[in-house]
Amino acid sequence: MHNITIETERLILRPLTVKDAEAVFEWVSDERVSRYMVYNTYTSVDQVKEWLRYIETAAKDYHFGFVRKSDGKLIGSGSIGPSGKNGFWGFGYNFRYDCWGKGYATEAAKAMIKFAYDNFKIRKFAASHVEQNKASGRVMEKCGLHFVRYGEFQKLDGTLKMRSMEYEGEI
Ligand SMILES: CC(C)(COP(=O)(O)OP(=O)(O)OC[C@H]1O[C@@H](n2cnc3c(N)ncnc32)[C@H](O)[C@@H]1OP(=O)(O)O)[C@@H](O)C(=O)NCCC(=O)NCCS
């Protein structure tokens, strides 16, 4: 786990811990949020704890919880790291449903990209979304990435294969 905290205009990006399990469960158990994510919809807080323990101990990417400054509420999470090929860093994000459409994902993703550049001089970024998930594509574009090719999305457990759109960008 890292101990990095990043402040943006409206958000604090900070490490996630097992104590966040109940707040995280609220969105990862919501089918509207999980539909186009690689994880399956969570059905218990214990499953979330297991994931958070993995992040704390083993994850290679930098995972962040996104806290809204105005009320201190944890409203989403995301990660960035060297998961892409050819020196690209990949990133992703998800937010609780009642916080969509306010520019938070763009604000958080831009902050993660800046973090990667400031600390590791990473300039090349890649991300992808299920074709139907147009809002996520807009976030990627607003972060300076552009569509490069179609790919294949599948859930971590191999279920549900769908066409994805892959984006790349260099800052
Ligand atoms: C995708 C997601 C992170 C976007 O978060 P957000 O905070 O609403 O994103 P932003 O407000 O920063 O930007 C969304 C953009 O998409 C646009 N948008 C929203 N719905 C859209 C749609 N159906 N078609 C096209 N564009 C759409 C918005 O208008 C906005 O663009 P604009 O600023 O040019 O108007 C959020 O919907 C989410 O958590 N979804 C579930 C998890 C998920 O799918 N994560 C991404 C996996 S790749």
Q: Could you say which small molecules are bound to this protein?
A: coenzyme A
- How much of the sequence lies in strands comes to 25-35%
* Architecture per CATH nomenclature, i.e. the level-2 architecture of the domain at 6-123: 3-Layer(aba) Sandwich
Number of strands: 8
Determine the CATH topology of the domain at 6-123. Aminopeptidase
Please give the alpha-carbon distance between the first and last residues.
Answer: 26 Å
Q: Mind telling me the CATH class of the domain at 6-123? A: Alpha Beta
Shape: globular
- Counting helices, strands and paired strands, the structural category is alpha+beta
Order of helices and strands: EEHHHEEEHEHEE
